Automatic annotation (TrEMBL):
CDD domains: Delta6-FADS-like (cd03506). This is Delta 8-(E)-sphingolipid desaturase. Belongs to the fatty acid desaturase type 1 family. It is found in: Membrane. Its EC number is 1.14.19.18.
């Protein structure tokens, strides 16, 4: 096999149509079919990269030794620049040569069909009517872009519109040729909009907002951002940011030990409910180290870090580190994408994007999050239920942990097969000690048992708020295949600003934007790395979103309120339609 031959985009599409797992890395074409079942990071991490240039993702998630091993999977090279394809997992459809309809190949050499305004966008079976692209363009121009003409924005967002259209089952071609800015599109109120159509307008608004607020999505601009990001990555490697400071874990171990000893002392003194507070604080603090182990950020050795993570998460806290890693790996790759990021899939309790109004199929859970009457009722109040639910969120993590360990996903880890029995053993030990030894044998009455569980679990609330704080208030729009990895991570992630003496309270994970750019960097180095990330953002023109803790909470609550009001509007319109037979979305 000639591993240096140039493979055309058409040939790569043929490979994907045949079911091959093709990923681009450093200009080389990788065929990862034989590696899928062996990948310790799970299958989805690979499936989300099919047809895409995953150079940045591969380099920052893997050690140099692992990256070198990928040379064995090379089958050729591509011509730069490469335009990312939509992975089949995300809805990309590919056909072999000879199976493509003539109408699908009418455009050649990058020239798009110029009949966008004359085509209709099918909104799928859930739509009660067909909403034309002319309606969409006019409605967005009037109602959602605050005076910015679609024709002025369209050249910068063709790929983003295509991506958003695919997610809504649109069948359209986007015309890149703009009309003169002096010709304002005709505007009129949105008439006879179904739920699906109105949801599409809201999603398109988010796309336009993202396009206006960030650097251009053209290949050259995003390519330059990728080059700057690569240079920054080399710099942090050379300056030792990947070096783990074990002394910091020594300090943390002292803190955990003190908290746990206070818990035991108060428990023995029969100050049961007070002791519960310190057990919750112990859980909150020790899980920061489990996070590092899950990213192989402590020793860098998969086996050692996995055992550290399993001991802390499974044995000490009753939470599966395997579940966390399978979920977290995907979250890092496709942050804040409603259909794919499990960290923001919380319907019917919460919705952070209008995309959920149309009911989405989660590619992580292989489950349809149906938008139903429960969501209509609960989401408008999500601003008020946010903190109460965060206080008891740990119970949901117990459930997700057991569902993971008992699912085929935990068994299909290739060379990491041994992690499942290890986790099961440690989880059983946790429940034997906490459930039987503490709750049943030590605490005297049911009221005290219930109060102890609630108080101790509410003690981890800060951790849950902090995790959601970094993403729930951030954009969820997909700006298309040309957006660079670095820009997407910074666009969808918020950092929390706090003084250094409070780092222990946040565990260093208040620097989530920095962490998402370089997930293997030990969290004790993230504050120093923040300086370099700020410089990177100033140089590339990407907005660095860093807010004080209170301000960050206000941003999240505002987003929850905004989406809640969208739902209220939809519910009122449905009632209006039921009574009059006419749309209320005017």
């Amino acid at each position: 096999m000639d591993r240096n031959r140039i493979i055309s985009p058409r040939e790569i599409e043929n490979f994907i149509a045949e079911g091959q797992l093709i990923v681009i890395h450093e200009g080389h074409v990788l065929r990862l079919d034989s590696w899928l079942g062996k990948h310790p990071g799970g299958k989805l991490a690979i499936l989300h990269m099919v047809g895409r240039d995953a150079t940045d993702e591969i380099n920052v998630y893997h050690f140099s030794k692992t990256v070198r091993l990928m040379k064995a999977y090379r089958i050729g090279r591509i011509q730069q620049p490469w335009i990312n394809l939509e992975p089949p997992l995300r809805g990309g459809v590919y056909r072999k040569d000879g199976e493509i309809d003539e109408s699908e190949t009418s455009a050649s050499d990058g020239e798009e069909d110029s009949t966008w305004s004359s085509k209709q966008l099918s909104l799928g079976s859930s739509a009660s009517s067909v909403y034309t692209s002319a309606d969409l363009e006019s409605d967005i121009s009037k109602e959602t872009t605050e005076g910015v003409l679609v024709d002025e924005v369209r050249p910068r967002c063709k790929d983003a519109l295509i991506s958003c259209a695919r997610r809504n089952a649109f069948a359209a071609d986007v015309n890149e040729k703009q009309t003169p800015a002096s010709k304002t599109p005709e505007t009129h109120p949105a008439k006879n909009l179904s739920r699906a159509a109105y949801t599409a307008v809201l999603e398109q608004k988010e796309v336009f907002d993202g396009i206006r607020a960030y650097p251009s999505l053209d290949v050259e601009t995003q390519g330059n951002i990728a080059l700057e990001y690569k240079a920054l990555h080399e710099r942090i490697k050379n300056e030792g940011f990947y070096d783990c400071r074990y002394s910091e874990y020594g300090k943390e171990a002292v803190r955990w030990t003190i908290l746990f000893c206070i818990f035991l002392f108060l428990l023995k003194a029969k100050w049961y409910l007070t002791s519960a507070i310190f057990l919750g604080m112990f859980w909150q603090q020790i899980m920061f180290t489990a996070h590092d182990a899950g990213h192989r950020g402590i020793t860098g050795n998969f086996i050692v870090d996995t055992l550290i993570g399993a001991f802390i998460a499974d044995f000490c806290c009753g939470l599966s580190i395997g579940w966390w890693k399978s979920s977290h790996n995907v979250h890092h790759l496709i942050t804040n994408m409603p259909e794919h990021d499990p960290d923001i899939q919380n319907v019917p309790l919460f919705a952070t994007s209008p995309a959920y109004f149309r009911s989405i199929v989660s590619t992580f859970y292989n489950f349809t999050f149906v938008w139903d009457a429960a969501a209509d009722f609960l989401v408008p109040y999500q601003k008020y239920t946010y903190y109460p639910v965060m206080a008891i969120a740990r119970f949901n993590l117990y459930l997700l942990s057991w569902l993971h360990l008992l699912s085929p996903r935990a068994a299909n880890l290739g060379s990491a097969w041994w992690t499942r029995p290890v986790e099961l053993a440690m989880m059983i030990c946790y429940w034997a000690l906490f459930g039987y030894g503490l709750l049943w044998c030590t605490l005297p009455t049911w009221p005290i048992r219930i109060a102890f569980v609630l108080i101790s679990h509410c003690g981890t609330m800060l951790l849950h708020v902090q995790i959601t704080l970094s993403h729930w208030g951030m954009p969820t729009a997909d700006l298309g295949p040309t957006e660079s990895f670095a820009q997407r991570q910074l666009r969808t992630t918020m950092d929390v600003d706090c003084p250094p003496w409070l780092d222990f309270l946040h565990g260093g994970l208040q620097f989530q934007a920095v962490h998402h750019l370089f997930p293997r960097v030990p969290r004790h180095n993230l504050r120093a790395l923040q300086v370099l990330v700020r410089e990177f953002c100033e140089k590339t023109g990407i907005k660095y979103q860093c807010y004080a803790f209170v301000e960050g909470n206000q941003i999240v609550l505002s987003r929850l309120e905004e989406v809640g009001k969208m739902v209220e509007t939809l519910v009122k319109c449905q009632l209006h339609m039921a009574e009059t037979g006419e749309s209320g979305l005017h």
